[in-house]
Amino acid sequence: MINGYLAKIKELSLNKLYKYSIYRRLIWCFICVFVFPILLIGGYNAVYSFSNNESDAKAFLKESSAQIANNISYYMFSHMNLLEEVATNPEIINDLMIYKHVDWNKKSDIENHIRLVLGSTFGASGAINACEMISINNSYFYYPSPVTNGNFATSKLLSEEARRVLMTVSSKEVPSDRNSYVILTRGIFSSDDICVGNIVAALDLSYFNKVCYENVTNLLNEVMIIDENNIIISASNEEQVGSTFNGDKMLSISISKSISNTNLTVVNHIALQTLLKSAFTQFAITLFTAVLLAVLALVFAILFAKSITGPINRLMEEMQKTKVEKFVEDDGDDEYHTVIEGFNKMSGNLVEAIKRQYTIKLQETKLRELRKEAELSALQQQINPHFLYNTLESIYWNCQLEGDEEISEIVNALGNYLRVIIVKGREYVTIENEVDSVNNYIFLQNKRFGNRILNSWDVSLSLRYTKIIKLAIHPIVEDVISTNLDDIESQININISITAEADTIRVVMTGEAVEYFLSLSDNTDLDQRGINSVDERLTLYYGDAFGVVLDKKSRQIRVAMPVYKDNGSEGKK
Fold first, then answer.
1. What is the DSSP letter of 476?
2. pTM of the full predicted structure?
3. How many whole angstroms from its chain centre is CA 254?
4. Could you give the CA distance from residue 190 to residue 225 in angstroms, rounded to a whole number?
5. What is the spatial distance between Cα 407 and Cα 387, in angstroms, rounded to a whole number?
6. CB contact at 8 A, 421 and 414
7. What proportion of the chain, given as a percentage, has pLDDT over 70?
8. Dihedral of CA 233/234/240/245: which sign?
9. In the 3-class helix/strand/coil scheme, how is 187-215 assigned residue by residue?
10. Structure confidence at residue 50 as a pLDDT band (50, 70, 90)
11. Binning pLDDT at 50, 70 and 90, where does residue 185 land?
12. At 12, is the secondary structure helix, strand, or coil?
């Protein structure tokens, strides 16, 4: 059994090889033997090296991000404590509560006291750019410059609900300084838990920039700090500051760490290109070795293949000459002469076969054209003699009863109707012509049957002069109306819409007349000659994708046909 499988594999392999020239087989054989194993080994070593580098980089980023987050958390915690101390100072609370109601001397003392507290508390910290204190009634104190606009009603940095230190990254609300700062805000509450004011401090971002810059190593990692809105407030690459962090760094290893006591996050990432350097170097050495061996293998393969394919190529050159009698100039009877005679015989047979095939195709084309013309001629002759007789009779009686005006209308409608139906030498008409033909037919029938037929059209004006194959709608309408006139005495309704999709015209017929006709479509005695003729003609001309569909489920009759492309051949068949 195993031998059977091996034999089958061998057969399939040989059959596959036979599809290629001997020259190509030998070259690929040498390349596969000498080059592919080296590439596989080198690729494996490169992947293994990259995997180790990636693991070490992740461990470094994780440890580094944790350290950065701890340092910033301690830094922010120390400044938040300063705000907590000032905000809970009983003297400060009392000063803010009474400031509005004391005289000018007392106000001056309060102002000096608050500025002294702000200066002594925050002045020693080089990180705090400015701080201010504001009462709920907008009494305003700052050191050395203001931070907010001094109004609780309009400021976005002040809050009456700040029972702990709130942090945001923003610019000051003064037009003279539009730089970004870390804004710390703390509410000041009285003993009965009523907000009497706020203390606000603006921290310079230089500390964050320093931390980001100092944590860049020889691995060329990038460090950035983002706020809760994913805005980069500080980064080792200053060009990124102020932009939005997109959350996914393509082709990089990224570690994020939230900073406690804040709404900030440290993002530390390394580009994969950095980690791939050593892997690329190793793979480059392997690739160079493989290319060198490939060149040597190619040289040996060419020499070896030439020794085999040389005689065969000379034979092929002789066979490609124009005149068969010059392939062989002697009267020998060896294998070479046998091959040439076989080639000559095959060429003669091929030429004869092509001629026969061309003749058959030409005959099929002529038969198809004759069939098309026969179908159109049969459809044109499908005019009910009784209909013409009854129409003429209607003309006569209307002449006796109504006078010349109505007779003129009937004669005009009949003439237009017959002009479209019977005219020869033209297979294609505009949609407007086809619509007029149907309207004239319905007009004449209404004259005969007392306005029992009601029809409506939904056709875009843009399709007015679009050409379609002749008699693609009228025979279907005639079948539907004739069936209804025979069976129904009340009014007959039929609605027709025509739309275009790319180069395809779609006609949809609905209404009570269509529904009644579809209900009888399974009856073998139902007259569907017009529908069958249109369907067969469209299929014959354009293929199975076009024709007539009787859809009982959706209660519609649908016709699909292509737009006629006028290339000057109309009427010449």
1. H
2. 0.42
3. 30
4. 36
5. 17
6. no
7. 67
8. negative
9. EEECCCCCEEEEEEEEECCHHHHHHHHHC
10. low
11. very high
12. helix
